[in-house]
Amino acid sequence: MSPIPMAMCGKITPHALSFARLMAPDYEIVFRFQSSQEFHSSFPLLMRKEPVNPLSGIGTNNDNPKPQVPAAIFVGGGFDDEELKGMMAMEEAKQVPWVAPGEECKKEVRTLGDLMSREREGGPGEGVIEIVVRRVKACLVLQELTHAAILLLCAVLKPCLSSGELRPQKFDVYLTHQLAFCWCIETLIPFVGPGASPKLLRMAWLMMLLTYINQLRPKMKPEVLASTPLPTIEWPSTWVKMTDAAIGATKDKSMDPHFVKVVRTLKDFAQSWRKHERMFLQACARFDDEFAGWTGFGEERE
């Protein structure tokens, strides 16, 4: 499996080199930006797959005639809040998720500030870089697991036991629990040691895989979720209206603890991962509009 390309913003060269080395082989640093000015001038070219070399020379896109587009951006040390906000405000920068430290950006990106707060007293050096790498990998893996959980929630076609045909049907209660499980991992990661995060993620992945197999390996259809129409997004009023409408729509829905849990979990995820807010809104809208009960219990004609 090819490594996932990432861009890195960092002003401290030794730390940047260590980070790039430790992220391999799962992730590949394709471009390192060492200043906000370089980011503003080079990142749009990078997103258009135009050849551009990092001034630092760090990144596999250096002198590469076929540059790779990063799937995520990591921000290291040296950038103040104004620089970071300016970089994130670029239209091209809104197309990819960010992993960045700093309390000021919690409402803008999925941050590492909470995940790293217990590790900062260790001081600079290779040990701290290793901790950062583990936390970054944990965030990226959890992001992928959460995306899979959302597809399992509301974008699957499940084979009928009698005919084997794929067809839309009620929401699978066991597949639904995978989203809540991912939120539990999200909540626990800041409070566990750096060596425990990979174990939690492996456990979450194995649980999701086991549930997927037990529930007849439904076919995930990302285009079903992507095609869900949405109103104009205005945070937080859009979510307030949507959750009020979903939970307060009928007594049957509001009295179903699993239904309420899904809506609230989607809202909480959207607050943490603002770059993916549209995906969570689409999932919530589809779940609310089509919810007519639960399935997944192996009953006849399921």
From TrEMBL:
It comes from Extremus antarcticus. It holds the Pfam family Questin_oxidase. Keywords: Oxidoreductase. One of its GO terms (molecular function) is oxidoreductase activity. The keyword Oxidoreductase applies. This is Uncharacterized protein.
